Amino acid sequence: MINMIISYDLRNKRDYKTLIDAIQSLGSSSKVLESLWYVRTTYSAVQCRDYLKKYIDKDDGIAVFDCSNNTWATYGANADKMKSLWN
Question: How many domains does one find in the chain?
Fold first, then answer.
């Protein structure tokens, strides 16, 4: 099992219920903050990101952090500075 942190920004059309249902379907989950979730899952960060992209719009953003394996995957997120600081 992998410990994931999932964060999202829904910008215009905000369909939180659909996205939250999708996050919870990935495994055991707990809402930490308004748009931050902990999920214990068997999926990789890339698999989670790709799955969750189906439930957000093109102007939204999502970040998935694999806390067990020190990896992450984003979509629509400004992660350039974080990428340069990672490790």
Answer: 1
